[in-house]
Amino acid sequence: MANVGNNPASIGRLILAIESSCDDTSAAVLRGPVVLSNIVAGQQVHARYGGVVPELASRAHQENIVPVVHAALSGAGVSIHAIEAIAFTQGPGLMGSLLVGASFAKALALSLSVPMVAVDHMQAHILAHLIHDPDRTPPQFPFLCLTVSGGHTQLVLVHSALRFELLGQTLDDAAGEAFDKAAKMLGLGYPGGPLIDRYAKDGDPTRFTFARPQVPGLDMSFSGMKSSLLQLIQKETGTDAQFIEKHLPHLCASFQRAVVGYLIRKTEAAMVQTHAMHLAVAGGVSANSLLRSELGRVAEQHGWTAHIPRFEYCTDNAAMIGMAGQLLLDAGQRADQRTVPMPRMPW
Ligand code: KG4
Ligand code: ZN
User: What pLDDT is attached to residue 10?
Assistant: First the structure.
């Protein structure tokens, strides 16, 4: 018999994971912590509206889900009949979008007679760090995770794969939402975060300054920065209609510096307060180039180990749902046909 002990691709259960919480339809196949395929279909339909239109998102999920699951199975080189369990996103997210993934997962689990597990999308963003990666070592528990996405901004102390302690969060807009709204004000497309990141590369981050939020403790606020940008645009375009065109890279670089600087200050405070030695970042905004470099810099300065995920595991993807699903199944958790999607999760 072949020795499979040291090859993580040959151990663990074969799981199909489905993610449909917002505007990306994704399916992945994992064997234990090893990702065999991870397919993500984005939805261009929202770009012209400057934000996700929930009804259009759920319709696009319905169109995409079967081809995306097919692509994930064929990418992994496995038959659907080999699948041993199904994981799906229970929430948080858009109700219509979540319903498509959850209903599909339930019907498939029923027809294949395999167990299924419901996954918290935000916890899955964090657990993406445990995906097997020959080039990276996973964070050691307890670690601090800055989770920054389009809908959430949280500082979480991760005690174990199943125990998460929320230390602080935004009181208004999420960091990704602030980027998206700023991009909209600047006449850029959606999602705005990657566009601001791109234009910022050619700009001077010290050219403009924005309101610095005064929120005590580890909670955060981004709406003041956003209003401060709006006021600047309104004031300057009053005298120069070309203001945005002339200063776009500087506006992007300065706004990005304000958001990232604030995130870093709060994260640093949380690390010092908790005495954690491992620092991780998760969620779509962790794709931001300045945030990635600043986290690395601050970690080096303090002697902490920074964990920055691969780009494909930063934004929404089903591989992270599969990773979280494996851990929940190992802990004995199961969903059943009565499990319902939850636009807001209880923590
Ligand atoms: O985690 P995610 O893919 O979806 C949610 O669960 O919300 O995060 C999406 C968010 C969007 O607000 C998007 O603008 C932001 O992540 N984002 C970025 C970058 N890439 C994605 N924000 C700043 N810089 C980026 N490079
Ligand atoms: Zn997300």
Answer: 53
Q: Which residues are bridge partners to 40 per DSSP?
A: 26
Whether 219 contacts 155, CB under 8 Å: no
pTM above 0.85, yes or no: yes
> What residues contact 215, with CB distance under 8 A and at least 6 apart?
171, 221
Structure token pair of residue 211: 């309101």
Residue nearest to atom 10 of ligand 1 (CA): 150
Residue that wins the pLDDT comparison between 218 and 44: 218
Q: Which of 57, 187, 136 is nearest to 305 (CA)?
A: 136
- Exposed, middle or buried by CB within 10 Å (0-12, 13-18, 19+), for 81? exposed
pLDDT grade, residue 50 (50/70/90)?
Answer: confident
Residue 117 CA to ligand 2 centre (angstroms): 18
* Minimal-distance CA residue to ligand 1 atom 14: 193
Over residues 270-279, the pLDDT tens digits come to 999 999 999 9
From the alpha carbon of 316, which atom of ligand 1 is closest?
3
* Average pLDDT of the residues in 321-346: 96
For ligand 1, which residues put their CB under 6 angstroms from it?
A: 22, 149-151, 176-177, 179-180, 191-194, 197, 283-285, 287-288, 315-316
C-alpha dist (Å) from residue 56 to 59, 94, 100, 170, 178: 5, 11, 12, 28, 23
CB count within 10 Å of CB 48 equals 9
Mutate to test the pocket of ligand 1, among 98, 121, 285 (most ligand atoms within 8 A of CB): 285
> Residue with structure tokens 């369990």?
85
Distance 89 CA to ligand 1 centre (A): 18
